[in-house]
Sequence to fold (631 residues):
Amino acid sequence: MKSHHDHSSAIASPDAAQDFLRRFFIVSGLLILLFIFGRLAQPLLQFLIATIIFYFGLIFLQHAKHELIARQYGMMTLVAIAITAGYLFSAVATFLPSLNAEFYLEISTLIWILLFGHYLEAKSAMAAGNALDEVTKLLPLKARLVKKDQVKKVAIQKLKSADVVRVLAGEKTPADGKIIKGAASFDEAHLSGESKPVAKAQGDLVMAGSVCLTGSVDVRLLKVGANSTIGQLQQLIAQASMTKPTTQKLADRAASWLTVIALSVSMLTLVTWLLIGSSVVFATTLAITVLVITCPHALGLAIPTVTTMATKLAVQNGLFIKDMGKLEVIQGADYIVFDKTGTLTKGEFAVAEVKAKQGSKAELLTIAASIEAHANHPIAQAIRQAAQDKKLQLRPVKKVKNIVGKGIAGEIDGQRFFVGQHQSMSVAVVTNKKVIGEILLADELKSESYQAVEKLRDLGLKVAMLTGDSQEIAQEVAHKLKLKSFFAQVKPQDKYQHIKSLQDKGKVVIMVGDGVNDAAALTQADVGVAIGAGTDIAVEAGDIVLTDSNPQDLVSLVVLARKVYRKMIENLIWALGYNVVAIPAAAGLFIPLGFSLTPAIGALLMSLSSVIVVINALTLKKIKLGRFLPK
Fold:
């Protein structure tokens, strides 16, 4: 079933805008003729011209039919009733002169104004931009396919996985792939939201839509079409377009109620003015004016125009919102809970301290690094890197044995050593069942984390941290970031319970994690944000996906949500508040004060109110969502 929102989107298309404009110009010419024949008192010619004008206004009846079928009674229903009632009443009066009650000029002027008003609305709504189009523009139309040392330009639709393409300076990467030849710097602003050159060389991955700034590379494609980064973004945006904020649902209900109110007040106006002795023409004119001025078009456009702009702004800043309704939740959130590893920290181990109980620190590190040279996990790499930084010479190791889940053993100069994890962030070196030293590891905080946490606090949010690390390590990280709340030694499968404990206290919680081992917590949270998803953008657990690993993007997200919510409320207040004054004025309540409205003036005011909400939504373009936002 097509909703009022879906139908409004259909009206705000390039083809619809041009159709309204074409009809407007034709009706403009006919309206001049109608005015002339009205002055010459030619009722039959007036009837003929008004009938042609009414024909061009049948587009409103066609749109009203969609509303009636969907039982979403709204603006078009009222317009259709107003112009049909006015035209038929005038036609009857033409052939029954005793009525002396035709107002072809008023109804035709109404159609003329409505056509131009709808043209302006369609153009304005289109100016808000379509996020899907924005993403599509990120890809080139053609790519340089490399086959047997021959380079041929082909449409990107013809590219397949494993094809090799050449990307030159100034060109866009057509799909996700790995560089197999050459080196270049790339602009990945479409993913990170930040335009800065990123150096890439052989073996590095490049994303679809990345702009090659300098150099040239040959890229073997890994993911093309729907599976590429751009393809996944398009799926996310399409999914988001199917969702509605709560304010949109409220607007839809209000539009339906407004239609019922308008019809009721219109009938009441007609009956009341007839009962107090007014003419049929006067009473009917006021009744039709009520229908016209109450059209909830502004209400229908109030939220969709804002969400369209919000989606576009989000895409431009590397924020992909899967459910638009979550923006309202974000603006009213109490807590933002970060997973530590890979979110606030770099997710890379580094040796923080070497403690030797026997021999020197250099000797202990040399032994550990020599044995760990036979392993390839992150801790082993960190220990080897520390030895390399200190320019220590590794020793040959014999009889190496990996003990799954515990560590690695080997012989150095005939002596047996074992290196294994002692606590969550420390490694013990053991020989003859005796610990001869300990190597403490650290996961370095991202430099952006400090500013992100500070600015989120400035925005009034309470910031907390979840980590599987020991109480001591968690305490140290919390101290550095000035966090008052943290949860330590939390197993991945138990993270959601801490989110739930905050929710049980009535708090609205945003959870930020990497979307892999945080899936349950992201799902449990009121809003789940998957950060640093890289190429795997369509993370199932998150409501929102941030393509970069920068925690400062959370600041942009909160600022965007608050600005968007404010625009939604402003538009709703205007669209509804306008009718509080408009309906009594149209019904003739202010006539004793010397003020009345005609259907034509009513149509003009209705169209202006619709354009105002669209223009208000367009002011979102001025929002700056850079990472270094002012306090």
